Amino acid sequence: MTQDELKKAAALAALDYIVDDTIVGVGTGSTVNHFIDGLAAMRTRIRGAVSSSEASSARLAAHGIPVFDLNGIEEIPLYVDGADEIDGRFCMIKGGGGALTREKIVAAVSARFVCICDASKLVGTLGRFPLPVEVIPMACSHVARELARLGGQPRVRENFVTDNGNLIIDVHGLTIADPFTLEARIDQIVGVVTNGLFAARGADVLLLAGSEGVERRL
Ligand code: 5RP
C-alpha cells in the first residue's frame, strides 16, 4: 500500500468513533482530508463540525457539512487529527500544515482525541520532524534567538502565513526527551503563539495504519 492509502485506512477507521447527533472536531492535513471525505457519507448522523483550519472548513462545506464556531460550543466528544510524529506516550509533533494553534484549541475542548497516522509517524523519540512554532511576526527574530538557545536550528517557513496571520518557525535538530517540559518552556517565550508539541494534551487513541491493517492503540 502507498503512504496515502495507509493514511486513508487510518482515517476511515476513525469514523467508528463518531458519536451520533454531535459536533465533530476536525483537524487538518492530507490524512484528515480522507476523514472528511468519509464523514460526508454519514453527514446526516452528525450535527456538524468544528474545524481547525480554513482548508478543512472549505472541504467540510463543500461536502455540505455545517461548520460551527467553537465559541458557541462547550464540549466536543470527538476530535480527529493526524500528526507529524507520535511517540509511545501519544505525545505528538503537529503543525506540518501550519494549523497547530487552531488544532490545539479544538483538541483542548474535546473529550477524546483520536490520532490517525500511517505507521511512519510512530517514533521512539520526538524531534526528527522539525518542530513548528507559530509566532507573532514582529517577534520572529527574538523567538528564533531564544529557540536557538534551547539547542535547535530555527528556520522561518518561507512564503507561509498561518490562518491567524502569523509566521511559522520550524526548529530543526531537536531530540525531545521530555516533550512536556519543552512544550511549556517554548510557550513561555514572549511572541510565541503556540508550539507544535502536543504533550500536555496528547492523543487518547492512536489508529496506526500499516501493511497488516489498522492497529488501534489505547
Ligand atoms: C497540520 C498537522 C497535520 O496533522 C500533520 O502535519 C500531518 O499531516 P498529514 O496528515 O498531511 O501527514 O498537524 O498542521
TrEMBL record:
Gene3D superfamilies: 3.30.70.260, 3.40.50.1360. Transmembrane segments: none annotated. One of its GO terms (molecular function) is ribose-5-phosphate isomerase activity. It catalyses: aldehydo-D-ribose 5-phosphate = D-ribulose 5-phosphate. It is an enzyme of class 5 (isomerase). The active site is at E103 (proton acceptor). Its EC number is 5.3.1.6. Keywords: Isomerase. Pathway: Carbohydrate degradation; pentose phosphate pathway; D-ribose 5-phosphate from D-ribulose 5-phosphate (non-oxidative stage): step 1/1. Substrate binds at T28, G29, S30, T31, D81, G82, A83, D84, K94, G95, G96, G97, K121. Homodimer. PANTHER family: RIBOSE-5-PHOSPHATE ISOMERASE. Belongs to the ribose 5-phosphate isomerase family. Catalyzes the reversible conversion of ribose-5-phosphate to ribulose 5-phosphate. This is Ribose-5-phosphate isomerase A. The lineage of its organism: Bacteria, Pseudomonadati, Pseudomonadota, Betaproteobacteria, Rhodocyclales.
